[in-house]
Amino acid sequence: MIVIGGGLAGLAAGVALADAGCSVRLFEQRPYLGGRATSYVLPNGEHVDNCQHVTLGCCTNLEDFYRRVGSTGKIKFFDRLVFLDPQGMTGIMKADFLPAPVHMTGSFLFFAPLAYPDKLSIARALAAILFAGGRPKDAYAADPISMLAWLQRHKQTSTAIERFWRVVLVSALNEELDRTDARFGIDVFWKAFLANRTGYRMGVPSVPLAELYEGCRIAIEKKGGEVILRSSVRSLRFENGALKAALFDGGREESGDSFILALPHDRTAELLSKEVRFANPSLANLEKFKVSPITGVHFWFDREVTHEPFITLLDTQTQWIFNKTALYRKEDPATPDQGQYLQLVISASYALVRKSREEIIDLCLKEVRQALPAAREAQLVKATVIKEAAATFSPEPGVDQWRPSQETKTPGLFLAGDWTATGWPATMEGAVRSGYLAAESVLRSANAPQKFLQPDLPVTGLSRFFV
Ligand SMILES: Cc1cc2nc3c(=O)[nH]c(=O)nc-3n(C[C@H](O)[C@H](O)[C@H](O)COP(=O)(O)OP(=O)(O)OC[C@H]3O[C@@H](n4cnc5c(N)ncnc54)[C@H](O)[C@@H]3O)c2cc1C
């Protein structure tokens, strides 16, 4: 079995198939695994993530993947979310002793960055999601609507939209509310905040991202398979309508019975011939996906500027500050930290795409110094900016109609990738789901069916009465 692409989708497919006893050959064009969710070493010797990647308690398939590759212990989970506005007002969101869906009521009532009329409007919209068991009819009608339109329909105040819905959803879905399908936005709130008490818990890697995938090679090689890096597939060879081989630089050819293409949608479109796309109407729309950007800003200060592991900023370009020094710190460090490494995340960063590196550093430094008084005295030792213009596909209203399933009509050809039909937006969870679904399709076509896809977290507490 051949897997092409060593991002999370390809790795999940490869590891699941290896666990099922298959010998898998996985080809990746880069010298490292992890695709968009990886880390690398800068010329200055620093290990940096290709932007901070976080998971949530409701990402059950990603959790299963980390378990399969021995990385569970490399993710730190937090159940306290800290919000800070430019005036220094702090808000905390966390679960108390109450059952779902009222487990966060206490912290919500005392959440200082929102006033009571905002909270009332939010409570009404959350109730509409809850009473519909996560699928309100006005978002699931034949004509998809945007999240912003749904929020306006549910009479949300402008502060509630800016300081609550937008803050959560732009980071979770990497798109502005007027370009996001309401179904994705509502699903985030149902799965993470309403269905149970633990879905919202935030998991942050305590190691550079590439270290999370160290177990993948071992899992694949244990079953006689192989992981081959620096191997870019240039074209595919089809015979009598079936996929027979992948062709690499230097005329090298790899043949097999089943191929999982776990590539971004644009690379997949380039590799598939007109005939294949004609035979598969579901592949006719790959050019219709739009993409949205993410910008990561890395600051190294000469001293500690915050004790928090991460903070959400309100009303600023900078959306999240991650304290990488604290996140990477082992318990009981032998030597105290000398300085502090912060990583800032700006999702749907359209406003920054055309700005220079210096402009972005100046802007974000000003915001960090405004938010964290200790940073005003601290010296910025070095800084770097990583812009990903096409970070994820845009979850625009109706996008699901363009997403093909993992199984195709072409014998030997299977697809994976966060953009394929998973029901999830472009996330690590979505990528792993696609890999598991592709692996299930491969085994089904070989008359050896197996299940890899994990169920969602159970709906618990009082929320059970609404499904
Ligand atoms: C900046 C940024 C921040 C993000 N933050 C989060 C987050 O916090 N939480 C979250 O859940 N998700 C986040 N995401 C989304 C997440 O990274 C992706 O959804 C997920 O990693 C996609 O995995 P994939 O395997 O589908 O695709 P990819 O990771 O793109 O994998 C495709 C692989 O195919 C390889 N490839 C391409 N062409 C060829 C070829 N011809 N031959 C061989 N190999 C090839 C590529 O090198 C790559 O390794 C973020 C994404 C970005 C870019």
Q: Could you characterize what this model shows?
A:
This protein has 3 domains: 2-36 and 209-288 and 396-445, FAD/NAD(P)-binding domain (3-Layer(bba) Sandwich); 95-198; 291-393, Polyamine Oxidase, Chain A, domain 2, CATH 3.90.660. Strand 12 and strand 13 (253-255) form a beta hairpin. The mean pLDDT is 96. The protein starts with a strand and ends in a 22-residue tail after the last helix. The chain is of the alpha/beta class and 467 residues long. The strands form 5 sheets. A 7-stranded mixed sheet has the order 8-7-16-17-18-15-19. The protein has helices at 8-19, 60-68, 105-109, 116-131, 147-153, 158-173, 182-194, 214-222, 265-271, 274-279, 324-328, 357-371, 373-377, 428-445, and strands at 2-4, 25-27, 39-41, 47-49, 55-56, 75-78, 80-84, 90-94, 202-205, 226-228, 233-239, 242-248, 253-255, 259-261, 291-301, 310-313, 320-323, 340-347, 380-393, 413-415. 31% of the residues lie in helices and 21% in strands. Helix 4 (116-131) crosses helix 6 and helix 5 (147-153) packs across helix 7. It binds flavin-adenine dinucleotide. Flavin-adenine dinucleotide (FAD) is lined by residues 4-10, 27-30, 35-37, 50-51, 53-55, 232-233, 262-264, 267, 294, 296, 388, 391-392, 417-418, 426-431.
Distinct small-molecule ligands in the complex: flavin-adenine dinucleotide
Helix vs. strand class: alpha/beta
Radius of gyration: 23 Å
What is the spatial order of strands in the main beta sheet? 8-7-16-17-18-15-19
The CATH homologous superfamily of the largest domain is termed FAD/NAD(P)-binding domain
Number of helices: 14
Q: Got a strand count?
A: 20
Quaternary structure type: single chain
Low-confidence stretches: none
